[in-house]
């Protein structure tokens, strides 16, 4: 079936491009064998459906098809003019070709890998210096996109469609519903993040895709928040992770534990009893990260950070926040 459709599309494209005048549906039906068979074995309606689908597929592939409403004594005519379907000359040097090859390989684990491979094939057919060896090196970067939420969020961000999903914050015992206007996706330190506008909180937020549970569902309507001209997802994630913050926090960390915290510690002081005292950058979202260390970490200050971490740990244990018992 796939081969038959590809052959049918090719024949239709050739008919439309190799004529000096618009062709009617009847003329195209007689010229393309698959259409003639569909008409003879089915009906006029079956042929019309097949033709309309094929025409839409060719347009999606980039073929410009002109429609003349009064070309043939009132009948609609179709024509693909060569001057409108001729691509300008593409000139790439070796470095640019290698960069394109590398970009296609970056996405090889995502569903759009087929589109990327197809684009490279077209460039090769056009004489571009793109080979299987282009971009090869001892280290070949790959960006995995295994999270189920990746594809629907990428599509929603491209189409500017709001979404809803269940999201489990770090240290939380259960997921909660979030309504988000997705801006951009970016991979940072091996994890995919979404930056967007949280409608319920009326503020910009960052979501780690691995913490999204269930399906991402698209919603109708327009964005309500202002979309920034440039979304630096890494900078937002870093800010929420406490990196680049001007404030600092003091924690007590069990020796032999918490290596991610130790790598960004500003100061480290050894204590008795197998503990160390660390001064670390303090920014939005730090409480969620600290809660993940459980009994291996104690927050000494500031007080609001300590209270936040305690509340998160109590939530995991199924207890009410302090002051609400």
UniProtKB/TrEMBL annotation:
InterPro entries: CBASS_pafABC_assoc_protein, WCX_dom, WYL_dom. Residues 149-213 form the WYL domain. Pfam families: WCX, WYL. Residues 248-317 form the WCX domain. This is WYL domain-containing protein.
